[in-house]
Specification:
Layout (H helix, E strand, L loop, with lengths): L2 H20 L8 H14 L12 E5 L5 E7 L26 H17 L7 E7 L8 H7 L8 E12 L3 E3 L2 E4 L1 E10 L14 H20 L4 E10 L9 E10 L2 H22 L2 E6 L6 E3 L1 H13 L4 E3 L17 E10 L20 H16 L2
Parallel strand pairs: 2-3, 2-4, 4-13, 5-12
Antiparallel strand pairs: 1-3, 5-13, 6-11, 7-9, 7-10, 8-9
Helix pairs in contact: 1-3, 1-8, 2-3, 3-8, 5-6, 7-8
Amino acid sequence: MTKEVLDDLHAYAVRVRRVLHEHPEVGFDLENTCAYVKGELDGMGIPYTEKYGKCSIVCELGKGERTVALRADMDALPICEKTDLPFASKNEGKMHACGHDAHTAVLLAVARYLKENEDLLPCRVRLIFQPSEECSESGAKMMVENGVMDDVDSILAAHCDNTLTVGEIGAVCGDYMAACAPISLHFYGRTSHATAPEAGVDAIAMAHLAYTRLRDEVRELAGDHPYIWSVGRFVGGHTHNVIADQCDMDISFRFYDGTFAEAVERSTRRIVSEIAEQFGGSADVEFHVSTGAVHNDTETVTSFTHALSHAGLSVKEISRQMTSEDFGWYLTKARGMLFRFGTRNEARGCTDALHTNTFTIDEEGMKNAILAFTSYVFYECE
């Protein structure tokens, strides 16, 4: 790819990213985002299908026996933006605070390049535009269950990263991002006057005891296993003078080892049941895995590294993370990897973390993401 071609693709990606950033949508409700993406694909003459689920878009280019898939997520977060960008969110309470606008823009630029060079493609390339990466109901899971990975040999995804300097590409072999299991606990008691607590069943007291016991139990079960057990929501009662008859707790559980996670689920259900029985109340446990761990396949990382070296880029080894990404669902069907592209630029103030209302990126970082995707496709399919 010549410098002039890459510069043109990058300029296109910047324009697309800014449009998407200005009009963020959340979860599976991506009507306008999907309309925009489809409009861009129509303009390129690339046919697409929406058969893999709500607000999903998939297109395919090239011919051959092998299929390489490239994936971008499209959804935003329910956050009020405070960046003062000229293209800041116009949708109140919604913001592209995780860079999915950049991911989508990069993949559209890749689509344009592959379409213009389709006669040179030595394989099929499936482009996956996915909804609902951020929500507990995974868009990746939906699309995988609907067959989007049928006949795919390998899959590649990218994520912007403000811990990497603009121009850097990062990856690691093996376990990279943790599995995620959102847990919801519901404790039910009986109301009474605050001056007669013995006449009621205190749901807050049940939840408080569960908070402590579960924290200690998970720590003991974990041993050397890396994990996260964070209570993000604890809500009970309505007023100061009534014993609460309900208290709810939401927990974010992150892990790599499935056997450990199964032990945690069994213990959680047992302890919650014991506490409810002890107090004379009742309880429910909602426990499901929203995404598995992202395990970067060694063969894919090796091919990716070689491909980038031929394009004049190097791959920086990065550390394992306890954050989660539903890209793990695709990896249950084919080998693949997720890489990071640097968007940090202190001079431009692009340093804030993902999922904050002041998150911004240096768009220059998208240039190497475009080059990485296209280089991998032609190298992998040789």
